[in-house]
Design a protein that fits this description.
It is a single chain. Helix content is about 45%, strand content about 10%. It is mainly alpha-helical and about 150 residues long. It has 2 domains: about 5-40, no CATH class; about 75-145, 434 Repressor (Amino-terminal Domain). A 3-stranded antiparallel beta sheet has the order 1-2-3, with no helix packed on it. α4 packs across α5. The longest helix has 19 residues, at about 80-95.
Length: about 150
């Protein structure tokens, strides 16, 4: 996969949020027009109207509230920033818990090349490695990787 295959982050162009594909020279608007039917009735599109939570979502919110956790609003999550910052957070985590990239490779059953990239903050890992980190170091990994205090 080349870097041209990766989507560009949305851009604000003259007050409209646009998804721009620089490689293909195309774009599309991410906000509905004022005369769009979906924006009037609140169904579908990006009208800002949030659908009612499901029973599963309400139960999960109740469990989190009972544990003292507050949900992060979706507007606060920035996937592009998270993807850009995570390799450095992962590197800080492994440097704090392991002596070198050889120990990292053994602990996470990955190649030495992957472990060296993680050590140098060049690449990030898959979710299964993050889950392993949270199990190996339940007190520090969630805080270092996500800013979440251990329970």
């Amino acid at each position: 996969m080349s870097r041209h295959d990766l989507p560009e982050p949305p851009q604000l162009v003259r007050g409209h949020l646009m998804l721009v594909d620089m490689f293909r020279g195309s774009y599309r608007e991410l906000t509905p027009q004022a005369d769009d039917q979906s924006s009037r009735n609140g169904s579908g599109g990006m009208s800002g109207a949030r659908p009612a939570p499901t029973a599963h979502e309400m139960a999960a919110q109740a469990r989190d509230a009972a544990r003292g956790l507050r949900p992060m609003p979706a507007e606060a999550l920035q996937p592009w920033n998270m993807a850009a910052e995570f390799p450095e957070m992962w590197s800080r985590y492994i440097r704090a818990h392991f002596h070198n990239h050889y120990e990292v490779a053994r602990a996470f059953t990955c190649s030495e090349r992957a472990a060296r990239k993680w050590w140098d903050g060049i690449g990030s890992c898959r979710g299964d490695k993050v889950a392993m980190a949270c199990r190996m170091h339940p007190e520090t990994a969630p805080q270092m990787l996500f800013g979440i205090a251990a329970e």
